[in-house]
Amino acid sequence: MSAPSILAKNLRSIGQGLCLLFHGCVRSWDHAARSPRRRLALGIVFGVLPASVAIATYTTYPSDEEQLARSQQIEVVLPLPIPSIDEQINVVTMPSVITTHTTVIRVNDTLGAIFSRLNIEDPALQRFIRGQSLAQPLATPREGVYVQAKVSSDKKAHTLKIFLEARSNQQKNSVITITRKGNRFAIKSSPFVYQTQQTMNAGIVTGTLIQSAINAGVPEEIAQKLPLVFERPIHNGLKVGKGDDFRIIYERQFLDGDFVRNGKILAASITHNGKNYESFWADDGSHTGGYYKLDGTSNRTTFIRVPVEGARVTSSFMPMRRHPVTGVLRPHQGTDFGAPRGNKIFAAADGVISRRAYNKRGYGNYLMIKHDDARTTLYGHMSRIADGMEVGTPVKRGQVIGYVGATGLATGPHLHYELRVNNRQVNPLRTSIPDKERLTQKEQHKLLAEARPLTTRLAMLNRIQSIKPLPQNEKVAQNKAGK
Ligand SMILES: [Zn+2]
Q: Which of 96, 193, 248, 344 is most buried (CB neighbours < 10 A)?
């Protein structure tokens, strides 16, 4: 596509996007949205950035009908100011010109590689960074950190900024700024906030939910998370399939106008067999927050963190430890909860018993529960397995599945508990797997207030998606009336 036609297309898109904001224009949008192909993918950006009030993007090729609809809209073409030859020569030849380069630190990155991506050749700065504790995330590169440099044409950095995101709710995002002052450098730390843009997309499911979202223009990493937002309804039998439609609102984060990363999904809805499923992100006091219905109940599969009565942690999750009975050094990738013999052991989440066995040299009497395609839990050393717990038996979160004991290799009564995600054992006390069944009243009130503008936008997308094509003659009459 040539540059002028890209410009014209963008201006048209902006025009159509703005149309959405004004009632008087809704009819022309409706007309454009009526095409079945158009209905497959609608994307709108609601920006808090000044430069992006509203932009509509389309991922499908326009049909004849759409082209007709577009031809009836006002097209604005603005000439781009072309800099004079003198100005352009200046830009190329002036030594002091400063350009901005950005990068995100990769796995196994080196300071040298980061500098080369930032177009910096500055050994003095490298030495300075290696000697500063504040600059440590760059000296020993920390994956995922966003770095921005203002670089002069002699490849010396004028300023270098390292953006560090908060790792917990108690921390704040901070930016480390290194500034060149003649032959010296100054370094300081200050807080920063992302400029966050909310982006909306909608589409119809044609294959999988994830692929359909990608087809509608949702970034892949966001699309991958979409089923998790509806984890519980999907676990309880919601089968998203062909012809269902979905709407999603997610964040995009910017710094100084540069796109840095996609944020979280804020809200999503799916219409399946005429029934609407909605899910909203809420601050539930956990590090990552969770996804809830407006009534405050969780849309995620929640895990009881300590699935045993009256427990204390006796041996925590660690990669290697000396076995208390055999004395052999081997991985201990579970958590031991010490508890009196006979105390109740609960299913950590809804699932199906996938193994029931006795292992004299290991877990003793143990059960495994399969919760979904990715996650299983294991409960070891039981004195007794509860009645009816056979392979294939469905269990509910909190249901009693057995009793604490010391069968197998154990020094005293305890529950050996493992949580496995994709067959890898993870720390059940540290992982971000949600454990909150419902929001507190205060959290729910906050959710209701924050969800109000989101529900309006989801409803608007739903309305655009649900417009039925008009009979041909009515459409012609409408076109004439519009002229
Ligand atoms: Zn253990």
A: 248
| pTM confidence score | 0.65
What is the C-alpha radius of gyration for the chain, rounded to an integer number of angstroms?
A: 29
Domain boundaries, the chain: 91-191, 312-426
d(CA 389, ligand 1 centre) in Å: 22
Report the separation in Å between the CA atom of 340 and the middle of ligand 1, taken as the mean of its atom positions: 15
**Dist. CA 290 → ligand 1 center (Å):** 30
pLDDT tops 80 at residue 443: yes
Going from the Cα of 331 to the center of ligand 1, the distance in angstroms, rounded, reads: 10
Whole-number Å distance between alpha carbons of 360 and 38 = 63
Q: How many CA atoms lie within 13 A of 387 on its CB side?
A: 0
Q: In 81-91, which positions are buried (b, 16+ CB within 10 angstroms) versus exposed (e)?
A: eeeeeeeeeee
Element (H, E) at 226: helix 220-229
pLDDT mean over 372-398 = 94
Q: Identify the CA nearest to 428 among candidates 320, 298, 302.
A: 302
Q: Does residue 268 sit in helix, strand or coil?
A: strand
pLDDT tens per residue, range 56-92: 333 334 455 544 444 444 334 444 556 667 666 665 5
Per-position b or e across 69-79, b if 16+ CB within 10 A of its CB: bbeebeeeeee
CATH node for 312-426: 2.70.70.10
Q: State yes or no: pLDDT of 328 exceeds 80.
A: no
Cα(386) to ligand 1 centroid in Å equals: 20
Tell me phi and psi for residue 205, to 5 degrees. Answer: -75, 125
Q: CA 282 to CA 441: how far, in whole Å? A: 12
Rounded to an integer, what distance in angstroms lies between the CA atom of residue 483 and that of residue 147? 53
Environment class of residue 135 by beta-carbon count within 10 Å: exposed (0-12), middle (13-18) or buried (19+)? buried
